[in-house]
Amino acid sequence: MSRKYQVKAVPVSWILHEGRRLDCGPYMSGAVEARELLQSLPMRKDPLQSLTKDGISGIINPGRITRNWVDDPEHGYRFLSSTEILQSDLSNISLIAKSAARQNANLLIDKDWILITRSGTVGRMAYSRSDMSGLACTEDVLRVIPNPEVVKPGYIYAYLTTRFGVPLVVSGTYGSIITHLEPHHIADLPVPRLGEIEDKAHNLVQRAADLRVVAAAQINESTSRYLAAAGLDNISPYEWIKNSGRTGFTAKISRSILRAVNYIPLNQQLVEHVKIKSPKWMPLGKVTEQGTLKRGLRFKRVDADQEFGLRLVGQREGFHFSPEGRWIAKSYLRNDPLINLSEGAIVVASQGGINESDSFARAQFVYGKKLEYVYSEHFLRIISNEHIIPRGALFAYIRSNLAFRLLRSCAVGSMQQDFHPDLLAELPVPLIAEDEAKAIDILVRDSFQKYDEAIDCEDQARAIVEEAIEKGGH
């Protein structure tokens, strides 16, 4: 959001249509302007509820649920929070008891739905992919279920995410920004009918969804292949919780490390498992570029316009497929490899809680469009020496549940965790045959190219819808 002082002249007809409101909010949000423009266009416009299954019943607020979390996948559904609907990797999300879905059938979602955050940051949207079908989703997300007999779902998503749709979604009856979104707030939202443009937009949105499904599958395949080539087995969250022995144990400790979490028996066994089973291994500190296995540098965060800035991404947005950080001035950023990350760098969430649902120790690959961002100092930087291991191959290992547990075994701190630098540098990294490592590296990079192509497809879908509206549907 711009911090500039804003001045805008509006016609008196807008003020009359908005119930003679004189506060500037409704007129600055863009909602009034979008509504007035749509009303002036000659094209047919249908209320959103006429395009959803069973009318307004196809716009669902599932209602409050009892959140009973479970560890065993047999007794739970993977549960999407209002931020996780924007993530590309859904393999490590929390499990909610299946009894919650029996109590509230609206908890589960299906593919081709439009998901809209309805509290907190209202109006963030995602198109439900095939790999999201059957997952549980928070009551803080509104479900819009298009009727495929009257409209293509991808078009509805494309339109709602345009510069015309977003202001109408997040505005109330009189254009004021609302704190909670309810079905009746958007039931009568006007949807312009654009003929062939609707099919084109739908196809682009659907292709984006399909690309993300394929990319996520390839990423998981890369991890499985790397561990298999190293002769290692991954460990599921449930296996770790059940067998960790963390509730009570004895251990021989060193003088410098006194914290129990660094001696959890199963983590110690996993370290030995990597060292014994792998054909070859090296400490993490030896496979990375010198001086890079550390958190990022601190820098001034001076807000700037887009043309003069770079987008800053923190741990909260870092795992979204299209992060939306604030724009900060380029001129205040030092020319340092820990700030200006090179292609194939790995960033790991390195500050935060250590509960199972926390992102601490989760990894992200910096490639393609992700190189356009500046990452906050709260990420650990892991930049491999490619003479030892290709960067995509190292990411395939670092993102595994096995490596995740090893990284967490290096945690220090009380409420907010960080990594112990000495323990981190000593973590074993299995090395595999060069040909297979290169093949895995190619697979990872191809996956992130697909993620980027998906973003381009969605951008193109929005662009053709906006252009058609501006031209009056022609």
Q: Give the overall silhouette.
A: globular
Q: What's the story with the biggest beta sheet?
A: 4 strands, antiparallel
What's the gyration radius in Å?
A: 24 Å
Global mean pLDDT? 91
Report strand order across the widest sheet. Answer: 2-9-6-7
CATH architecture of the largest domain: Alpha-Beta Complex
Corresponding CATH superfamily of the largest domain: DNA methylase specificity domains
The secondary structure category is: alpha+beta
CATH topology of the largest domain: Adenine-n6-DNA-methyltransferase TaqI, Chain A, domain 2
Number of E-type strands: 21
Features:
about 475 residues, Adenine-n6-DNA-methyltransferase TaqI, Chain A, domain 2, 4-stranded antiparallel β-sheet, 4-stranded mixed β-sheet, 15 helices, globular, DNA-binding
How would you describe what is shown here?
The structure is a single chain. This protein is α+β, with helices and mostly antiparallel strands. The protein folds into two domains: 213 residues, Alpha-Beta Complex (Adenine-n6-DNA-methyltransferase TaqI, Chain A, domain 2); 201 residues, Adenine-n6-DNA-methyltransferase TaqI, Chain A, domain 2. Helices cover 34% and strands 15% of the residues. It has 15 helices and 21 strands. The strands form seven sheets. The protein has a four-stranded antiparallel sheet with strand order 2-9-6-7. A four-stranded mixed sheet has the order 3-5-4-8. A hairpin with a 7-residue loop joins strand 6 and strand 7. Helix 8 packs antiparallel against helix 15. It is globular and about 75 Å long. The model has no long low-confidence stretch (mean pLDDT 91).
